[in-house]
Amino acid sequence: MKRVLILCTGNSCRSQMAEAIWNDLGQGEWKADSAGSKPSGYVHPLAIFAMKEWDIDISANQSKLASDFQNEPFDLVVTVCDNAKQDCPVYPGAKETLHWPFDDPADATGTDEEKMPTFRRVRDEIKEKIAHFLRSV
User: Fold this and answer.
1) Where are the alpha helices (DSSP H) in the chain?
2) Does residue 13 carry a catalytic annotation?
3) Cα 71-134-125 angle, rounded to 5 deg
4) What range does the domain containing 33 cover?
5) CA-CA distance, 137 to 134, in Å (whole number)?
6) Rounded-to-integer distance, Cα 121 and Cα 127, Å
7) What are 7's strand-pairing partners?
8) 42: three-class secondary structure by DSSP
9) pLDDT for res 88
10) Dihedrals φ, ψ of 15, to 5°?
């Protein structure tokens, strides 16, 4: 089984959604984990809600520290935000590293209802990027 580590700063939105989407689309051929350079300590409730719309439950997920994975072997490490690209440790066991920046949905303003389109858009962009990558390997 191939392994991918998805990195972000807080590990509360983008990387959590990407981990779940990758595990879903990877169909048992990939094992995805996610972590953050400065973990927030929680998974954003609107990220949980956005994934629940696709019947993917990430409510039990926890934000994890990127350096905890530093000495593990990965086929791929993907950074999903510019800060993570700069702040995360080097992964000597990674065969390949990619940078796929996405907007941070946690930066959306307004009520939860007003924020949800941003969470959905970023979720959809992440799925499209992962699906394209998996079709090409």
Assistant:
1) 14-25, 45-52, 82-87, 112-136
2) no
3) 95
4) 2-136
5) 5
6) 10
7) 35, 79
8) coil
9) 67
10) -70, -35
The single residue listed with the structure tokens 């990027």 is 129
- The helix/strand/coil state of 52 is helix
Strands 97-99 and 2-8, bridge-based pairing: unpaired
Query: Which parts of the chain sit beneath pLDDT 70?
Result: 84-85, 88-89
Alpha carbons 6 and 100: distance in angstroms, whole number: 10
Q: Which amino acid is at 109?
A: T
Single out the catalytic residue among 4, 6, 7, 8. 8
Identify the active-site residue in 81, 84, 108, 130: 81
Structure tokens at 117: 């389109």
User: At 66, which CATH number?
Assistant: 3.40.50.2300
Is there a contact between 75 and 2 (Cβ–Cβ < 8 Å)?
A: yes
Rounded CA gap, 82 and 42, in Å? 20
pTM score of the predicted model: 0.94
Question: Tokens 């954003």 sit at which residue?
Answer: 44
DSSP letter for each residue of 36-105: ESS--SS--HHHHHHHHTTT---TT----BGGGGTTS-BSEEEE-SHHHHHHSPP-TTBS-EEE-----G
Looking at residue 84, its pLDDT comes to: 64
Q: What is the pLDDT of residue 120?
A: 98
